[in-house]
Write the structure tokens for this entry.
Amino acid sequence: MSGESYPEIREEVRKMCANFSPEYWRDLDRRDEYPLDFVTTLTREGYLSALIPEEYGGSGLPLSAATVIMEEIQVAGCNSAACHAQMYIMGALLRHGNEEQKRKYLPEIASGALRLQAFGVTEPTSGTDTTSIKTFARREGGKYIVNGQKVWTSRAEYSDLMLLLARTTPHDQVEKRTDGLSVFILDMREARTNGMSISPIKTMMNHSTTEVFFEDVEIPAENLIGEEGKGFRYILSGMNAERILIGSECIGDAKWFIEKARNYANERIVFGRPIGQNQGVQFPIAKAYASMRAAELMVRDATQKYENCENCGAEANMAKMLAADASWEAANVCLQTHGGFGFAEEYDVERKFRETRLYQVAPISTNLILSFLAEHVLDLPRSF
Ligand SMILES: Cc1cc2nc3c(=O)[nH]c(=O)nc-3n(C[C@H](O)[C@H](O)[C@H](O)COP(=O)(O)OP(=O)(O)OC[C@H]3O[C@@H](n4cnc5c(N)ncnc54)[C@H](O)[C@@H]3O)c2cc1C
């Protein structure tokens, strides 16, 4: 549909995704099951280690290549939500971990021997206000003892490691609210028999998300990433990549919906002619296409700035918001174009519709992006 970068990667991802039919996804959705075969194949083919440098066993590709992988998975009607976090969580370890940690974990993550797909940030009482999290890691000799609770920790049941954000200095003993938070690599294989429990949350789409409880869970001090108390900025430093990758997934979703709507509008005959002949049907599809293309440009701009090591906070946020809006608009239009059949499971529209709706809220909600732009780009008064 548009000028395409990395044509070989696109072609290969498309070929791989062709092995995962709509029936495969429908069946998993019905049973609320994790797409193990899909994730195993993605890992085996090296896509999930695209951003891991070659010296640690990955392919050392730039972010733009990773965006293409994510986009194509969605264009093919598959769902990378089952594993996308590994791409950006790993960045915290890569940028802020020490050499020993990188040698210990990255090659095994790259080979697929270890999965790092769980990201424990959100808590029930803190919501979007991350600095008010309560999960606490207390240092005791050579280890930390963790107590608290996370919510919406996706893929925790299918991951070996979790990147965990916890408070290490109480809120009232730090100068800035962003201080006193630390990031750890938590080995969940050990923690599961040592005070950590996981409870699945049933959601409107198949997302394998959970609540995780910590009761005196021990983490060896050598699993602290970077410096104690600086964890919030390590998490923040990975957010631009996260926003850009999610944005490209949304672009992929939007393309899937537009293609599906176009095909149906051409094929469906009502009143003796294709419904797509009516401008009332074709204009919303054309409008969704224009929105998708505009958002795609913003995703590309943010990616370019990221790769040039420029400050891309505003662009990455706008890319995520505009791409999520474009996918949601395309989802609505696609469902409307299908009339009653849009609601039928076998057309896959209702499933993708449920799946793409998430990106209005997670990993950051639209309001929080608008608030960032208002305060940091437009210099409007801080509201919270
Ligand atoms: C399926 C799913 C998977 C997820 N996976 C993960 C994961 O793997 N790891 C993880 O850590 N988290 C995860 N999340 C959590 C996700 O990042 C949060 O849900 C999201 O950041 C919003 O936080 P909240 O749900 O607590 O909403 P709240 O912070 O309670 O906000 C509720 C609503 O109020 C609005 N709001 C709040 N404050 C303001 C304000 N000051 N101004 C204007 N509007 C405001 C928000 O925009 C939102 O619409 C997941 C969530 C879902 C639903």
Summary: Strands lie at 116-120, 136-140, 143-151, 161-167, 181-187, 196-201, 209-220, 224-225, 269-270, 273-274.
